[in-house]
Design brief:
- The chain is an alpha/beta fold.
- Helices cover 33% and strands 17% of the residues.
- It has ten helices and nine strands.
- It is elongated.
Length: 284
């Protein structure tokens, strides 16, 4: 039986679509083909052990796994979860109806646990581009909840191989794993909580020319240099400037957060990852 799944690999700010094809025929060999690197070839033992330790059946037949496109070198271990699901689906251990609707990525532990991915932004954007309903992976925090609405591709958190199989069998997400992905309950809303953390720009009295200049800078995405004597309100206004910055749109989000995840930017993202990055420099 042949089963096809969609996955992806993250390369800095870009996610590359990878198609995982699993075929089970008569024989006893186990192959991974398609320019897989050493780490991915070593995944065979982890996948086998994870399947056995989660009480699923390992098919005693010839298993061929093709990673397409074959001209792209595959690296890392994010393809372990889709490969394991492909082996189980191709051997008839759960139905394959829902597999085509989701992008799947994750590293497996020997006990079948799915290792959390810290930065799923590029994978969510890839799923949106491919027209998928969501991304099946494990992640840490409610910081990524807003992506569900902005990207039109939901984050479906699974903590283990068994939970992933249950999701594709029933269509129901594990409640405990996805509790952290719910937005915090607040009358201000998610964006309002972030803005409130900086103080309100409208609370500043006076300084109308300076406030107007900062409003233009915020609306147009310009830099601003404030020069003046101490105590006139420069620092206070700069501290409140993030509260009037427009929110990150769905096209900018994966690039901005991917840049922060790479550690190449000095600008700190906000608490909920929803406000634009902001960098304030003061003289020593």
């Amino acid at each position: 039986m042949l089963v096809t799944l969609q996955s992806g690999l993250v390369q800095f700010l870009h996610a590359t679509p990878i198609t995982v094809e699993v075929s089970i025929t008569r024989g006893i060999k186990y192959f991974i083909v398609g320019l897989a690197d050493t780490a991915l070839k070593e995944s065979k033992q982890r996948i086998y052990t994870a399947i056995k330790n989660t009480q699923f059946h390992w098919p005693g037949q010839r298993i061929t796994i093709n990673l397409a496109p074959t001209t792209t070198r595959k690296f890392g271990t994010l393809l372990e979860l889709p490969i394991a699901l492909g082996v189980l689906a191709a051997s008839g251990q759960f139905p394959t109806d829902r597999l085509k609707d989701y992008l799947i990525a994750g590293t497996l532990g020997l006990d079948g646990a799915v290792v959390p991915i810290e930065q799923p932004y590029q994978l969510v954007e890839l799923a949106r581009r491919l027209g998928k309903k969501g991304v099946v992976l494990n992640t840490y925090s409610a910081q990524y909840t807003y992506l569900n609405d902005r990207q039109n591709a939901a984050l479906c958190a699974v903590r283990s191989l068994k939970e992933a199989v249950h999701f594709f069998q029933t269509g129901q997400l594990p409640a405990a794993a996805n509790a952290a992905l719910r937005p915090p309950q607040s009358p201000l809303g998610l964006w309002g909580q972030e803005r409130a953390a900086f103080g309100c720009f409208s609370e500043v009295a006076g300084q109308r020319p300076l406030k107007r200049a900062l409003e233009v800078a915020a609306a147009g995405g310009h830099h601003a240099l404030l020069i003046g004597p101490p105590g006139v309100g420069k620092t206070m206004l700069c501290d409140r400037l993030p509260s009037i910055l427009p929110p990150i749109n769905l096209y900018e989000a994966p690039w901005i957060h991917g840049l922060h995840a790479s550690g190449t930017s000095e600008m700190q993202p906000s608490v909920f990852q929803n406000l634009r990055p902001f960098l304030k420099r003061s003289p020593p």
